[in-house]
Design a protein that fits this description.
Radius of gyration: 14 Å
Order of helices and strands: HEEEEEEHEEHH
CATH architecture: Sandwich
Largest sheet: 4 strands, antiparallel
CATH topology: Jelly Rolls
Helix content: 25-40%
Distance between the termini: 36 Å
Shape: globular
Length: 140
């Protein structure tokens, strides 16, 4: 089991679920823990995405065009699509309680993708699955 400094088991995070223990350790070493106050904006729709985040504790709401579309809880992640694609954030995410999050910046995230073809493929497959899930949610 590979945990972040705040105790999140990376193997239980969807985007990392197919990584080996060695690959999970590489990810864990790059993560940075941050404490977030209730009401803080984690991402703003339309702005550049520079960080991938995992929620260790606390909750957040996800808004698209001012409408709440989801709520996030510990173990969930956000920001991977903007970090991978370099496109603007697709949603605004706001802390609805005090939070602890683990952050991986774009440079670190891209270094993981460059580390090995296998690791990059596994992370990209996880991100594509999430994108497909998001698209199905929008059409239902």
């Amino acid at each position: 089991m590979t945990k972040t400094s705040s105790g999140v088991d990376l193997a239980e995070i969807g985007i990392f679920s197919e990584l080996s223990k060695r690959e999970l350790k590489a990810v864990s070493r790059l993560m940075t823990e941050l404490t977030i106050k209730e009401g803080a904006t984690l991402t703003r729709q339309g702005e550049p995405g520079r960080e991938f985040m995992i929620i260790s504790s606390g909750t957040a709401k996800v808004e698209i065009d001012g409408q709440t579309v989801a709520h996030l809880a510990p173990g969930e992640f956000l920001g991977e699509l903007a970090v991978i694609s370099g496109t603007p954030r697709t949603a605004t995410v706001t802390a609805t309680s005090p939070m602890i999050i683990e952050i991986l910046n774009r440079r670190e995230f891209m270094a993981l993708l460059d580390e090995s073809a296998t690791l990059g493929r596994k992370i990209l497959v996880g991100a594509v699955k999430r994108l497909q899930m998001n698209e199905r949610t929008k059409t239902n």
